[in-house]
Specification:
single chain, 414 residues, alpha/beta, 7-stranded mixed sheet, 11 helices
Length: 414
């Protein structure tokens, strides 16, 4: 069966749904193809920095989400090796683009809010893309696992680290960093009692963090460099939980209690992968009427908390670039080869503009995240000394500096 859709977005994650909603706000319809049967909420939560809130405001859902997530006031960094007092810093400092605003966002809440704002038939679930081919210079054929073929003028890959679209563009599979993360969340029956602080702990080659999302929910993560023996618990939440507790025995009791009270279905483990930064600089972010965004473009380690935030930025910028391109054609009439060529060239220019705008930003975030992760989890007396004496405060400032960014509004130039 063959269908036609002007704009096809592969993946109903943060980047895909933000792009689709951005286009919808600008009066442009898109079709989102999602391989799973429902929204993918893997990862539970993520730190939502100031740049992400500007993107959420641009797409019109910031106010609603603020009501559901606690504003974080300070970041507290503690070394479990040195025994030194924690390094504490305000998260409300003012940057070039305004005062800092950091919350811990429940991924499910964000995706459901994005979905709710879209027309009901925008997302098509159980639609796995298996291949892409050229129907002509102006059109792509998107082949689904169920045999459906969708003909489209614009193809956007927001399909994650194993992206079919990024592979088509020539990107290599994101390599393993040698580090993995276990993530979890705990729902308390009453108030958890934690202050609105982002708490981080450094140990021997490990890093852990605990962040309240709201009055009852605390999100936590643990990163480490796994050995071959650690593979036995990758799919075993009970063993994951015991492993994290064994590595976090030096943490305060009320912090350990968060892990202890986490239900087994609230724990996952995943290897940390990233795009080599130079591939983003030299690779094809777009080619013709095809481009990638989100993790399909710039998978990065979670060490500066910018994976989800930058995906939100991508969605706003991409929607704006596509809308400008389509409006410059005057209309979408493509009944003849000349009209189709004009539309294609405008789309191609719009996607190139997106790539140009996001290339260096992606390079900067991937590189910073990798370096920060390396510093935070490195072992050795010299590195421990430098991290405890100098780097803790610097790293906290770096997180805020990278979030001091504004992707702009959903406005277009006629």
């Amino acid at each position: 069966m063959e269908e036609v859709a002007d704009i096809v977005i592969v993946g109903a994650g943060i980047a895909g749904l933000t792009t689709s909603l951005g286009l919808h706000r600008l009066g442009i319809r898109s079709l989102v193809l999602e391989s799973s049967e429902t929204l993918r909420t893997t990862g539970f939560a993520f730190t939502t920095w100031s740049n992400a809130w500007r993107a959420l405001d641009a797409v019109g859902i910031g106010h609603s989400l603020r009501q559901q997530h606690q504003l974080l006031e300070r970041i507290v960094i503690t070394s479990t090796i040195s025994g030194k007092p924690p390094s504490e810093r305000s998260l409300r400092t003012k940057g070039k683009h305004g005062e800092g605003e950091i919350r811990c966002m429940k991924r499910k809440v964000l995706l459901e809010e994005l979905e709710r704002e879209l027309p009901s038939d925008t997302i098509r679930y159980s639609s796995k893309v298996v291949s892409i081919e050229d129907e002509s210079r102006h059109l792509k054929l998107v082949h689904l696992a169920d045999g459906t073929i969708i003909k489209t003028k614009v193809l956007i890959g927001c399909d994650g680290v194993n992206s079919v679209v990024s592979k088509w563009l020539g990107f290599k599979p994101p390599p393993f960093t040698g580090r993995s993360a276990i993530r979890g969340y705990t729902e308390f029956k009453g108030s958890h009692g934690f202050e609105p602080k982002f708490m981080q702990f450094f140990g021997k080659g490990t890093r852990s963090g605990f962040i309240p999302c709201d009055d009852q929910t605390v999100y936590w993560f643990f990163t480490w460099s796994p050995t071959s023996q650690d593979k036995e618990f990758e799919d075993n939440p009970a063993k994951m939980k015991q492993f994290v507790l064994s590595k976090c025995h030096d943490l305060p009791d009320r912090i350990k209690a968060v892990i202890e009270n986490t239900l087994l279905d609230g724990i996952i483990s995943s290897p940390l992968r990233y795009r080599r930064p130079w591939e983003v600089l030299w690779g094809n972010i777009s080619k013709g009427n095809v481009c990638v965004a989100g993790d399909a473009l710039h998978p990065m380690t979670p060490d500066i908390g910018q994976g989800g935030c930058s995906a939100l930025e991508d969605g706003i910028v991409l929607a704006r670039c596509i809308a400008e391109a389509l409006r410059k054609t005057g209309n979408n009439d493509d009944d003849n080869d000349k009209d189709r060529a004009v539309v294609f060239e405008r789309i191609e220019m719009g996607l190139k503009k997106f790539g140009k705008e996001r290339r260096w930003r992606s390079f900067e975030l991937i590189s910073t995240a990798y370096i920060v992760g390396y510093i935070q989890q490195s072992e050795g007396k010299i590195m421990n000394f430098l991290r405890d004496k100098i780097l803790a405060s610097y790293l906290a400032g770096l997180l805020m500096k990278r979030s001091d960014f504004d992707c702009g509004k959903l406005t277009t130039i006629s």
